TrEMBL record:
It is found in: Membrane. It comes from Anabas testudineus (Climbing perch). GO terms for cellular component: plasma membrane. InterPro entries: CD300_family_receptors (IPR050671), Ig-like_dom_sf (IPR036179), Ig-like_fold (IPR013783), Ig_V-set (IPR013106). Residues 1-24 form the signal peptide. One of its GO terms (molecular function) is transmembrane signaling receptor activity. It comes from the Eukaryota. This is Immunoglobulin V-set domain-containing protein. Keywords: Membrane, Signal, Transmembrane. The keyword Membrane applies. Residues 31-123 form the Immunoglobulin V-set domain. The keyword Hydrolase does not apply.
Length: 158
Protein backbone atom coordinates (compact mmCIF):
# COMPACT_ATOMS: atom_id res chain seq x y z
CA UNK A 1 0.00 0.00 0.00
CA UNK A 2 1.26 3.46 -0.75
CA UNK A 3 0.03 6.77 0.62
CA UNK A 4 0.73 10.32 -0.36
CA UNK A 5 0.03 13.43 1.61
CA UNK A 6 0.03 16.80 -0.13
CA UNK A 7 -0.30 20.16 1.53
CA UNK A 8 -1.20 23.35 -0.30
CA UNK A 9 -1.09 26.82 1.17
CA UNK A 10 -2.99 29.31 -0.89
CA UNK A 11 -5.75 31.43 0.62
CA UNK A 12 -6.64 28.53 2.91
CA UNK A 13 -4.92 25.42 4.14
CA UNK A 14 -6.03 22.18 2.55
CA UNK A 15 -4.73 18.68 2.90
CA UNK A 16 -5.03 15.84 0.41
CA UNK A 17 -4.44 12.28 1.60
CA UNK A 18 -4.53 9.43 -0.93
CA UNK A 19 -3.93 5.72 -0.34
CA UNK A 20 -3.80 2.78 -2.70
CA UNK A 21 -3.18 -0.92 -2.17
CA UNK A 22 -0.39 -2.09 -4.49
CA UNK A 23 0.81 -5.39 -3.06
CA UNK A 24 0.22 -8.17 -0.58
CA UNK A 25 2.19 -11.02 0.95
CA UNK A 26 0.51 -13.69 -1.22
CA UNK A 27 -1.83 -14.05 -4.19
CA UNK A 28 -4.82 -16.39 -3.85
CA UNK A 29 -6.63 -17.75 -6.93
CA UNK A 30 -10.34 -18.51 -6.32
CA UNK A 31 -12.75 -20.07 -8.84
CA UNK A 32 -16.52 -20.08 -8.62
CA UNK A 33 -19.60 -20.71 -10.73
CA UNK A 34 -22.47 -18.31 -11.43
CA UNK A 35 -25.26 -18.75 -8.90
CA UNK A 36 -22.99 -20.64 -6.46
CA UNK A 37 -20.70 -19.33 -3.72
CA UNK A 38 -16.96 -18.73 -3.45
CA UNK A 39 -14.98 -18.96 -0.22
CA UNK A 40 -11.87 -16.86 0.26
CA UNK A 41 -9.60 -18.00 3.11
CA UNK A 42 -6.99 -15.48 4.21
CA UNK A 43 -4.13 -16.28 6.58
CA UNK A 44 -2.76 -13.58 8.84
CA UNK A 45 0.19 -13.31 11.21
CA UNK A 46 0.05 -14.29 14.86
CA UNK A 47 -0.74 -11.29 17.03
CA UNK A 48 -3.65 -10.04 14.89
CA UNK A 49 -6.29 -12.32 16.46
CA UNK A 50 -8.21 -9.44 18.11
CA UNK A 51 -8.05 -7.09 15.11
CA UNK A 52 -10.94 -6.52 12.71
CA UNK A 53 -10.54 -8.34 9.37
CA UNK A 54 -12.26 -7.53 6.08
CA UNK A 55 -12.61 -8.28 2.38
CA UNK A 56 -12.43 -5.35 -0.03
CA UNK A 57 -12.15 -4.49 -3.74
CA UNK A 58 -10.44 -1.80 -5.79
CA UNK A 59 -8.29 0.52 -3.65
CA UNK A 60 -9.91 -0.60 -0.37
CA UNK A 61 -11.27 2.80 0.51
CA UNK A 62 -14.18 2.93 2.97
CA UNK A 63 -16.71 2.42 0.13
CA UNK A 64 -14.76 -0.60 -1.18
CA UNK A 65 -15.01 -2.70 2.02
CA UNK A 66 -17.52 -5.49 1.35
CA UNK A 67 -17.67 -7.25 4.74
CA UNK A 68 -15.90 -7.01 8.12
CA UNK A 69 -15.61 -9.45 10.99
CA UNK A 70 -17.62 -7.02 13.14
CA UNK A 71 -20.59 -7.43 10.74
CA UNK A 72 -20.44 -11.22 10.14
CA UNK A 73 -23.12 -11.03 7.39
CA UNK A 74 -23.95 -8.27 4.89
CA UNK A 75 -25.98 -8.74 1.69
CA UNK A 76 -24.35 -11.60 -0.28
CA UNK A 77 -21.23 -11.60 1.93
CA UNK A 78 -20.42 -13.40 5.16
CA UNK A 79 -17.19 -13.72 7.13
CA UNK A 80 -15.78 -15.75 10.02
CA UNK A 81 -12.46 -15.71 11.85
CA UNK A 82 -10.67 -18.80 13.20
CA UNK A 83 -8.38 -17.11 15.71
CA UNK A 84 -6.65 -20.39 16.62
CA UNK A 85 -5.55 -21.08 13.03
CA UNK A 86 -5.02 -17.37 12.12
CA UNK A 87 -7.36 -17.63 9.12
CA UNK A 88 -10.47 -15.65 8.27
CA UNK A 89 -12.87 -16.81 5.58
CA UNK A 90 -15.14 -14.56 3.53
CA UNK A 91 -17.95 -16.10 1.48
CA UNK A 92 -19.55 -14.47 -1.56
CA UNK A 93 -22.87 -16.12 -2.42
CA UNK A 94 -24.97 -16.04 -5.59
CA UNK A 95 -21.93 -15.29 -7.77
CA UNK A 96 -22.26 -13.42 -11.05
CA UNK A 97 -19.78 -12.24 -13.69
CA UNK A 98 -19.52 -8.79 -12.03
CA UNK A 99 -17.94 -10.49 -8.99
CA UNK A 100 -14.90 -11.58 -11.03
CA UNK A 101 -11.74 -9.58 -10.40
CA UNK A 102 -9.30 -8.47 -7.76
CA UNK A 103 -10.02 -8.44 -4.02
CA UNK A 104 -7.89 -7.86 -0.95
CA UNK A 105 -7.84 -9.50 2.47
CA UNK A 106 -7.33 -6.76 5.01
CA UNK A 107 -6.65 -6.35 8.72
CA UNK A 108 -7.58 -3.03 10.34
CA UNK A 109 -4.85 -1.48 12.46
CA UNK A 110 -3.92 2.05 13.46
CA UNK A 111 -1.95 3.90 10.83
CA UNK A 112 -1.67 1.65 7.79
CA UNK A 113 -3.83 -1.48 7.43
CA UNK A 114 -2.21 -4.87 6.90
CA UNK A 115 -2.99 -6.74 3.63
CA UNK A 116 -1.90 -10.38 3.97
CA UNK A 117 -3.27 -11.46 0.57
CA UNK A 118 -4.44 -10.34 -2.84
CA UNK A 119 -7.30 -12.45 -4.25
CA UNK A 120 -8.10 -13.05 -7.91
CA UNK A 121 -11.66 -14.38 -8.31
CA UNK A 122 -12.70 -16.02 -11.57
CA UNK A 123 -16.39 -16.70 -12.10
CA UNK A 124 -17.31 -19.29 -14.70
CA UNK A 125 -20.60 -19.78 -16.48
CA UNK A 126 -22.21 -23.16 -16.59
CA UNK A 127 -22.83 -25.93 -14.17
CA UNK A 128 -20.49 -27.19 -11.51
CA UNK A 129 -19.88 -30.86 -12.19
CA UNK A 130 -18.51 -33.63 -10.02
CA UNK A 131 -17.44 -36.70 -11.95
CA UNK A 132 -16.87 -40.14 -10.47
CA UNK A 133 -15.14 -42.88 -12.42
CA UNK A 134 -15.41 -46.51 -11.21
CA UNK A 135 -14.65 -49.91 -12.65
CA UNK A 136 -16.99 -52.79 -11.87
CA UNK A 137 -16.29 -56.53 -12.11
CA UNK A 138 -17.30 -56.57 -15.81
CA UNK A 139 -14.61 -53.98 -16.63
CA UNK A 140 -17.34 -51.46 -17.40
CA UNK A 141 -16.48 -47.93 -16.43
CA UNK A 142 -19.32 -46.02 -14.84
CA UNK A 143 -19.09 -42.27 -15.05
CA UNK A 144 -21.47 -40.35 -12.87
CA UNK A 145 -21.85 -36.61 -13.17
CA UNK A 146 -23.77 -34.29 -10.87
CA UNK A 147 -24.63 -30.73 -11.69
CA UNK A 148 -27.01 -27.97 -10.76
CA UNK A 149 -30.27 -29.83 -10.17
CA UNK A 150 -29.39 -32.68 -12.52
CA UNK A 151 -27.78 -36.04 -12.12
CA UNK A 152 -26.77 -38.45 -14.84
CA UNK A 153 -24.87 -41.69 -15.33
CA UNK A 154 -23.10 -42.85 -18.48
CA UNK A 155 -21.72 -46.36 -18.97
CA UNK A 156 -18.72 -46.93 -21.16
CA UNK A 157 -17.71 -50.50 -22.02
CA UNK A 158 -14.05 -51.30 -22.53
Amino acid sequence: MWCISLQFTLSSLSLVYLCCVIGAAEIIQVFGYEGKEAKVSCSYDEGYESYEKYLCRNDCGSDDILITTTEARKNRYSISDDKHKWVFTATISNLNQNDAGKYWCGVTRSGKDYYPAEVELKVEKGVEKISILKENKYKTKVISSQGQGTQGTNKIST
